[in-house]
Design goal:
The chain is mainly β. It is 3% helix and 39% strand.
């Protein structure tokens, strides 16, 4: 059965999917529809501003969490932080922030604290909240070889790996700039997208950090040899080009891996056996098209939402068929647009949340409006005037 599924999806995946750019009414499809909420989140206190925003997650209470990088905020933006201050505006927001469903700020913390028993990443990256309420944080600086665990109040729990430690894709202890963590709460396993330097998925025990299994592209033993820049039309590489940007476990125990600069999603069993792959926007160069993944909240997880921070889209994919049905969004500064759509998460009601890196630097909410007949490309999802 697995072989048949793989062949069916493989045939679909390599048709050469491109980014839809038109919304002809004659080409409508049934798919989820969203509207941006321009009032989310609410105003931050104390003249806070955010830097490159590189992780978003939703917890069991439907609270929305984000992580950003204060060091990426320019001196010009942090006038109130200078000594002496050069103006009333502005100051850096703490790296980790929690919001309720209205966008109200609830908790905030993070960063290195003198004498603390952990090593805050030089470049924090990725965020996950497990069902126990533990906050997991990854990292992608060249010297970040570790991941961190905290309570929701910011109390340190554990660090797996050591900052600055040399590593490779078969290292049993350290990581290579790990991009994202996803926790399987039923089995106490964490899937690490590892990463920016390493080229693997690694599964660890959530309590001890012990490595349980590791694999590279197509289930191969991972190899760190440079693959060079992606060339459109090239034969798919037998290793992840990277960064390995996400590794997401579905309800039916399939692992979906973002091989970002190869513009592909690869699918595996929990044990790392290759099932299928899908390429989206194959002509995309530079940063690539596959940045992050979220699954719809129905029991079958019918839909897969893929954030593309290069073409500035969210793709809506039929997960079983591995077919892109529709997409929405565009590049820009206004609500519903992105620049560097980096991470994506979903709440229990089906609303989506994104954060943006580079010059985007913000959190946005997209309200789920149900499945409707929509164009292949839905454009910027402005609220419909009533």
């Amino acid at each position: 059965m697995l072989k048949k599924l793989s062949l069916a999806i493989f045939a679909t995946a390599f048709v050469g999917l491109t980014v839809p750019t038109s919304g002809a009414q004659s080409d409508l499809v049934m798919a989820p529809k969203f509207e941006v909420d321009p009032n989310f989140p609410l105003e931050l206190p104390k003249h806070w501003v955010t830097g490159m925003s590189v992780g978003v997650a939703v917890d069991e209470q439907d609270h929305v969490w984000m992580v950003h990088r204060p060091p990426t905020i320019s001196t010009n933006e942090r006038g109130a932080d200078q000594d002496p201050p050069t103006g009333e505006c502005c100051t850096s927001a703490p790296p980790v922030m929690e919001f309720d469903q209205t966008g109200k700020l609830l908790r905030h913390w993070g960063g290195q604290v003198a004498g603390a028993p952990y090593e805050w990443p030089l470049s924090n990256h990725g965020l996950w909240i497990d069902k126990k309420g533990i906050v997991w944080i990854g990292a992608n600086h060249n010297s970040d070889s570790h991941i961190l665990k905290f309570t929701k109040d910011g109390k340190f729990i554990a660090q797996f790996g050591k900052a600055g430690a040399p590593t490779n894709s078969n290292d049993p202890v350290n990581f290579g700039s790990p991009a994202k963590i996803m926790v399987d709460d039923t089995r106490n396993e964490a899937y690490i997208a590892d990463g920016y330097r390493n080229k693997r998925v690694v599964v660890i025990d959530t309590e001890t950090g012990a490595r349980k299994r590791t694999w590279g592209a197509y289930g191969n033993v991972p190899d760190d040899a440079s693959l060079g820049r992606y060339v459109p039309g090239e034969k798919p590489t037998q290793q992840f080009r990277g960064p390995v940007h996400c590794a997401m476990l579905s309800a039916d125990d399939l692992v979906y891996v973002c091989d970002r600069q190869s513009n592909r999603v690869q699918v595996f069993t929990r044990e790392g056996k290759f099932v299928s792959e899908m390429i989206i926007a194959p002509k995309t160069g530079g940063d690539g098209s596959i940045w992050d993944i979220a699954f719809s909240k129905d029991p079958a997880q019918k839909w897969m939402f893929i954030a593309d921070g290069k073409n500035e889209r969210v793709y809506i994919v039929d997960r079983k068929k591995m077919e892109m049905v529709s997409s929405f969004g565009d590049g820009g500064r206004q609500p519903g647009q992105w620049f560097g759509a980096h991470s994506i998460a979903i709440d229990s009601k089906g609303n989506l949340y994104t954060v943006e890196t580079y010059e985007g630097r913000r959190l946005q909410k997209f309200v789920y409006k149900g499945e409707q007949m929509v164009p292949r490309w839905q454009g910027v999802p402005w609220p419909v005037k009533k």
